[in-house]
């Protein structure tokens, strides 16, 4: 299985129009018929005017086939893509390999934090395996949703997604984890693998699978 994380940066002020088209036209036209969607979010902190969505496919070949089928869907191409194209300033995508498969959080509403770490050359997999070994410590404070290493376009990248009930819960969880001796041990080992860190706080859209 491969995962695809797509990021659309929109023209300032046009987010409401994009979300309306996505909810009323794009999502009904596509749904989970052309790959499985796990979540659809807007950015709250970090880079603004962004939409993030996470998909999975059985294989790269299956992704190619399904996207070819989607291109034949005229509702998608004429009623959705043609109308959102002027709203989008930039598109970015990441193809990802799972280290920990997606685990949606429990019932209720959540905020999500995607953390993207660029590692030193060849260190994405070792870093991801290191944090995986310490997850029993970290998940005492908040649940991991997924952990991946980059396949394309950046192989030296690790991506992890976390869920919290709200912003205050995130702050409390991270503060508590930072005091945990086990997590301090992990932090002491992990820094040598890393070159650059990015974090974006995400809010589920009305049509997101994960709330």
Précis, in short:
The chain has 211 residues and is of the alpha+beta class. The protein contains seven helices and eight strands. It has an eight-stranded antiparallel β-barrel.
Question: How would you portray this structure in words?
Answer:
The protein has helices at 15-30, 60-70, 74-84, 124-133, 135-138, 167-179, 181-190, and strands at 2-10, 36-45, 50-57, 88-100, 111-119, 144-152, 157-164, 194-204. It is α+β, with helices and mostly antiparallel strands. Helix 1 (15-30) runs antiparallel to helix 3. An eight-stranded antiparallel β-barrel has the order 1-3-2-8-5-7-6-4. It is built from seven helices and eight strands, in the order βαββααββααββααβ.
Task: Give the topology, please.
Elements lengths: L1 E9 L4 H16 L5 E10 L4 E8 L2 H11 L3 H11 L3 E13 L10 E9 L4 H10 L1 H4 L5 E9 L4 E8 L2 H13 L1 H10 L3 E11 L7
Antiparallel strand pairs: 1-3, 1-4, 2-3, 2-8, 4-6, 5-7, 5-8, 6-7
């Amino acid at each position: 299985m491969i995962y695809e994380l797509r990021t659309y940066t929109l023209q300032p002020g046009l987010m409401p129009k994009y979300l309306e088209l996505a909810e009323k036209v794009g999502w009904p036209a596509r749904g989970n018929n052309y790959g499985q969607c796990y979540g659809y979010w807007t950015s709250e902190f970090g880079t603004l005017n962004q939409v993030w969505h996470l998909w999975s496919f059985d294989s790269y070949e299956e992704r190619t086939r399904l996207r070819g089928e989607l291109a034949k869907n005229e509702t998608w191409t004429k009623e959705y893509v043609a109308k959102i194209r002027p709203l989008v300033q930039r598109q970015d995508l990441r193809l990802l390999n799972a280290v920990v498969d997606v685990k949606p959080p429990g019932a209720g509403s959540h905020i999500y934090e995607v953390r993207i770490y660029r590692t030193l050359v060849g260190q994405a997999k070792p870093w991801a395996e290191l944090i995986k070994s310490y997850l029993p410590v970290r998940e005492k404070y908040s649940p991991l949703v997924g952990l991946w290493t980059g396949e394309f376009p950046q192989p030296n990248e690790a991506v992890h997604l976390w869920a919290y009930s709200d912003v205050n819960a995130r702050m409390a969880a991270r503060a508590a984890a930072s005091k945990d001796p086990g997590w301090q041990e992990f932090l002491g080992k992990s820094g040598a693998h890393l070159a650059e860190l990015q974090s974006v706080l995400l809010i589920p859209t009305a049509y997101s699978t994960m709330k």
